[in-house]
Amino acid sequence: MTTEGRVPAVDMRDIRVSFGGVHAVDGVSVNVFPGEVMGLVGGNGAGKSTLMKALSGARPPDEGQILVNGQPASIKNPGDAKHYGIETIYQTLALADNVDAAANVFLGREIVSRFGSLDDAAMESATRKVMTRLNPRFKNFKAPVKSLSGGQRQSVAIARAIQFNAKILIMDEPTAALGPAETAQVRDLVAQLKQEGIAIFLISHDIHDVFDLADRITVMLQGRLVGTVDKNKVTKDEVLGMIIMGKLPDQMNEKELAQLH
Amino acid sequence: MADVSGAAPSVAPPAPAPTSRSFSSLLRSAEVDTRLLGMVAALIISWIIFDVGTGGQFLAPRNLWNLSVQTASVAIMATGMVLIIVSRNIDLSVGSVLGVTGMFMALMQQEWIPRTLNFGYDLWWIWIVTVIAGLALGAAIGLLQGSLVAYVGIPSFVVTLGGLLVWRAVTFMLAQGRTISPLDATFTLLGGGPKGAVGDTVSWIIGIAVSVAIIYALISNRRKRLRFGFPLRPVGAEVLIGAVGVIVVMGAVWVANSYMWPKNLAAQYAADHGIPSPPGGLQIPTGIANPVLIALGIAALMTILATRRRFGRYVFAIGGNPDAAILSGINTKRVIMLTFVTMGVLAAVSAVVATARLQSAVSGLGTGAELSVIAAAVIGGTSFAGGIGTIPGAVLGALIIQSLVSGMQLLKFDNPSQDVAVGVVLVLAVGLDQVLRKRAS
Questions:
Q1: Which residues of B, range 376-395, sit inside 8 Å of A by Cβ?
Q2: Which of A169, B94, B279, B426 is the one with CA 20 to 30 A from B125?
Q3: pTM for this structure?
Q4: Shortest CA distance to A92 belongs to which of B330, B326, B314?
Q5: Domain carrying residue B43
Q6: Interface with A, mutate which of B85, B233, B313, B314 (most A CBs under 10 A)
Q7: Does ipTM exceed 0.85?
Q8: What is the CATH number of the domain that holds B399?
Q9: How far is it, in rounded angstroms, from Cα A250 to Cα B215?
Q10: Which of B31, B227, B329 has its CB closest to that of A108?
Q11: Residue A57 in contact with residue A141, Cβ under 8 Å?
Q12: Is B251 part of any domain?
């Protein structure tokens, strides 16, 4: 995919986040274009989730600049992020277990009547509609999401993200808790959303997942940016080398690559 | 249960008998809260036992009417406590807030306004001003405590334990331990008593209006689901719910209207109005007591707030998963603070009812009420784990506690035995709930 002359949907520049004295994210820059999937990989504690929390408003960055469609964006809380069309599917799913699917999908953005009463029927109707696209077998619209299976809960979390016409989607380990069939479903969905021109950040431990879905791959190590590479120009081993050694492919030699196995 | 035989095959528990299955499936299709239904059953059984034990005294209109008045004060506060506990907090200060707002209102109408303004005591508006000021004081206390919990991050247990001590002391300091009495004549009508009730005609009108509202709500809800093409409840279930609702409402009105004014009060009234007393005395139906109307109105408002408004939805979401609520963009601190403001206002409403009923304010007013209120909410199904609880459940919980106390009083049990009974029922109710929930999941 050529990115020359186009404006990135999101451009994060020199982002820094620290907890106490620890630099969880230390001057990282990354961007993603509309209709592109940017894979974010790295070991535990690499700072990928923290970097994405800076974008989703869950933990605003201490330093750095975020541009949305080329315009500087001020994201101080999750509400701000949603205002910019940035939706997040958290690894923990972040569902309120005690309420039903529709209440979760619309949490914080409820449909209300003229007098401010919750319009549960309208919300259930919209949820049923989005679910026919995501997971046609989903039936438990009245049950608290606590009683749903892992895959169904994942569907609710995804439904919440795409219900509001997201322009930018952050997916944090979207397939970690899923079986093979459900994983395939999520992959189809990612491809479909990409077609619709949504920019996607995909965080994953699974390098095969990333290679299948991502257009470009950004590697982080201990809070720092190792580099961003075009998926078609690298091998899985080279990306693995970036994750483990923190070196770009052209800095690695044959011997080092061989040691990875 | 422990398996001592060692030979029992490890199979799934036997399927329930067909009759119980069809009954429970009817309940499920009717979307009735089975827990609430269980509480109603427990209440009815205890009423029958008390009635038999007292030789028909318990279910007499007089006792039921008194029971409703005695329940009102705790029920009002319990509706607010549900929201507090559902959002994973606690308010231990409600008894003291009741005390301080009650004393404040009593002093205002009895001393401050008449003395400062030199208006005298017979001002028609004095009770309105004092009630508004009392509610404002309750809101202000709630705002202070809620802000300390939500914005400063002090645990609610600590903040409100401090509040329990402070507001009780302030209650004492306000009046230096004096009893403030008597109170404004109109004000005291808010506390009940035969004159503090709406009479039979208004009671019937209220009963009919509520019945119509129940039927309207059922029909409009069904229409809405039909319009969206959602699955519907069977018509039989809808009719059953509507019929039970109307029967309960009209039955309660009938009981309230069956309670006649006491003979001497009726004779006094007859003499004052020049009505000749018939043999056996003038029969004046009392109707629903004012504090009961206030409690029911508040329960209805709080139910709407909890289930039909964003605020209530957020309170439950915070209780279910605080992180998820924050990540959804909800201003959770503001919501938590507002639950405490609501609780403060409700404690003040309770103070109106309690002081008006006693026709005086004392320093000890509402002492220990926090425990009854928390017990009512918990017996009513509110979970300390957060996210679970209903307003009608809490009101029913308050009624169950008061029924136990009242029934045991009639049976001549002493106060300690009453406390034992309430304590046992509290633990039993929560224990049973745990067992049933575990089996359900």
A1: 387-388
A2: B94
A3: 0.90
A4: B326
A5: 35-47+54-197+289-440
A6: B313
A7: yes
A8: 1.10.3470
A9: 76
A10: B329
A11: no
A12: yes
